[in-house]
Amino acid sequence: RKAVRLYKIGGIVSECLYSPGCGLKPPKDSPRPIGRINAAMVVRGNTLWVFGGMLEIGDKEIALDDMWSLDLNKLNGFKCLKELTTLPKDMRPEPSDSDESGDSEWEEVDGE
Fold first, then answer.
1. Exposure pattern of 49-58 as b/e (b: 16+ CB <10 Å)?
2. What domain range is 46 assigned to?
3. According to the UniProt entry, which residue ranges have a biased composition of type Acidic residues (predicted)?
4. How many structural domains comprise the chain?
């Protein structure tokens, strides 16, 4: 049997799909998970897997049941493997993104 390492990483609410250090930002319309806390995250091979977590809306805590993957070699965006069913669509927060261009291709970010 081959030993497999599994890392569970907790984190803060984040909607960052890219590393500012790589100089690229994702297209505004690319699918991505909503911000969450206490998600289960695993890196296996070259794929990042994200499952569940919790979302706070006001004083309510809502458990999330969606699953996403991200190919770390390509970094071409998240892929939704299981849709979110625990939160009605009208209650879902909009992703925070200051990009107003709406382009569908990855753009280079000017160095600051």
1. ebbbbebeee
2. 1-89
3. 96-112
4. 1
**Residue 8, in any domain of the structure:** yes
- Total-model pTM: 0.61
d(C-alpha 95, C-alpha 16), whole Å: 10
Exposed e or buried b per residue across 63-87, where buried means at least 16 C-beta atoms within 10 angstroms of its C-beta: ebebbbbbeeeeeebbeeeeebeeb
Which residues in 4-23 are b (16+ Cβ under 10 Å) and which e?
eeeeeeeeeeeeebeeeeee
Is 3 part of any domain? yes
DSSP per residue, 23-91: TEE--TT---PPP-BS-EEEEETTEEEEEEEEEEETTEEEEEEEEEEEETTT---EEEEE---SS-GGG
Q: How far apart are CA 52 and CA 57, in angstroms?
A: 16
